[in-house]
């Protein structure tokens, strides 16, 4: 397998994300504020995301296929629910691609926002309307959904 060709869609997608975020920052901040409860707002959210993507891109050579160790937009994430051992899969996407019925959740949704930038094998306590849920991130794969 030609690893550089495998890596190209991931690299291309991440670069497109950086450009999209830069060009649409005002609209994204409006969406973020509208979808995020006041007590959960973090106005450095997009700066942190851009910084993590840039760090990933600079630390990854184009000739290698890096394993994703962090949840980015475009990641398909396997979550292990700690209480019952159930595994569920979500693809973190931009709001216009969201389709929760098929596992595509916006990075601005409550669950998407809470998963973004977490690490492989990290335990995360998700706050949901029905209470807190303890999950572990068991797998992160790039999903070229565009």
From TrEMBL:
Q: Name a GO molecular-function annotation.
A: RNA polymerase binding
Q: Which InterPro entries match?
A: GreA/GreB_C_sf, Tscrpt_elong_fac_GreA/B_C, Tscrpt_elong_fac_GreA/B_fam
Domain of life per record: Bacteria
The yes or no answer to whether the keyword Secreted is present is no
**Limits of the Transcription elongation factor GreA/GreB C-terminal domain:** 70-141
What are the alphabetically sorted keywords of the record?
A: Elongation factor, Protein biosynthesis
Q: Which GO terms describe its biological process?
A: DNA-templated transcription elongation; regulation of DNA-templated transcription elongation
A matching Pfam family: GreA_GreB
The protein's matches in PANTHER family, at most eight in alphabetical order, are given as: TRANSCRIPTION ELONGATION FACTOR GREA (PTHR30437), TRANSCRIPTION ELONGATION FACTOR GREB (PTHR30437:SF6)
Name assigned to this protein: Transcription elongation factor GreA
Organism for this UniProt entry: Aneurinibacillus migulanus
Lineage of origin: Bacteria, Bacillati, Bacillota, Bacilli, Bacillales
């Amino acid at each position: 397998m030609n690893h550089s060709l495998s890596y190209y869609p991931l690299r291309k997608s991440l670069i497109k994300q950086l450009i999209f975020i830069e060009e649409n920052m005002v609209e994204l901040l409006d969406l973020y504020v509208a979808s995020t409860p006041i007590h959960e707002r973090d106005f450095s959210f997009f700066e942190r995301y851009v910084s993590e993507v840039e760090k990933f891109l600079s630390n990854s050579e184009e000739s290698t296929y890096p394993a994703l160790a962090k949840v980015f937009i475009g990641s398909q994430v396997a979550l292990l629910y700690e209480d019952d051992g159930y595994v569920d899969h979500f693809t973190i996407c931009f709001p216009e691609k969201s389709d929760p019925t098929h596992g595509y959740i916006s990075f601005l949704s409550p669950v998407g926002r809470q998963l973004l930038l977490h690490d492989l094998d990290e335990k995360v306590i998700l706050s949901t309307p029905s209470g807190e849920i303890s999950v572990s991130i068991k797998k992160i794969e790039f999903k070229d959904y565009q």
